[in-house]
User: Fold FHA domain-containing protein from Micromonospora carbonacea.
Amino acid sequence: MRFEISKVLDAIEGRVCTDPSLARAVLDLAEVIRYQDLDGGRPANLLRLGMVIDALARDLTEDNVPVYAIVHRALLSDADLTSNERMVVRRWADDGLVEVLDNPGDRMLEVADLLGLPVLSRARFDGLRGRFPWTVEQPGRVLAPVPGAGGPVFIAHVGGGNVPVAGAPSATGVKLLARQWRCPEQGCALFGGGGGGGAFADLARVERAPAGQPPPTLRGGVPTCPRHGTRLGDAGPRPRTEVLAVRIGGLVRRRFVLTEGQPVLVGRAPEQQGGIVLGQWLNDEARRWISRGHVRFECRVGEVIVTDVSTNGSGIRPGGSMAEPDRIALKPQQSRVLAPGDLVELYPGVQIGRADELPSGAAFTPNSVMAEAPTMAMRLPRP
Ligand SMILES: [Zn+2]
Assistant:
């Protein structure tokens, strides 16, 4: 059973990130792990994070939806967690997958404000409406995870809906995310990179791409490292990015970030590091058709270029049209610039396009990060 819990925690690890292009909601880990009423179990349980992430994926009808977690430093030594859970959270902290802070203060709301993300919390923010008016003015922007029939459900603080609503990133957020930042602290997991890890830089588990840096915090108007409280250096313009999504059988399975100058290979099992692996979602026929590396995406001067590198070829669905006469063949070694709305089709039902142009079309149940959870952890109350 220990082994199974580890597997669940590994699955959850794939759903926490501080990448502004990928995170879909912000939460406070110390709060979420204490939602004892979700399962009636022990006072603190890291698996509750998985339950809340699952609920978010269900509501957004999209698989592999990551959250931006703020973590109070005290959590790393919280005696209510198991030693295994504390170790996992420390690993997430070291890898910059979560943001660990000595004093989180309003950071959760600041991140949500800068990035335009919804907040998942039961806390009331009435006193902060001056600084963050959207907390009380925008329906669906703040939601409380509460016990429901099949796991947690969300209730909006304002408007009574239950689907998280994203806002626009604030003007300050747009400005901050146009630059790369450098923390003077050695090996900073949030704003390091470029040898920040010193002698062991090559051993770092995760290489943080500058394009995936979290938003700095502002102290007196100065961009500051939220972890170290140090003033950040401006390291030049941030590389341009485009967020693409993979839709298989009508359901968006995952998103990925395409950064200028860094091509990404997508296929059944691409050998390139950072390649997007589709194999686990494909049936036998699709697996036979789709090459290990099937298409390559590049972001160049703001355009997305796709090149077929497969054996069998691909197709373009212009403007997302599913009418067969509209489909344009993309033969092996052919390239094409993706026009607005265009989808690349590797095999019928296996499509890739810009994330904001590729809604989940089908009523599917996303894969649970809790699928491997031992039944004991899943003792959900049945109202
Ligand atoms: Zn730092």
Observations:
- The helical segments are 2-13, 29-32, 47-60, 83-94, 107-115, 134-137, 171-176, 284-289.
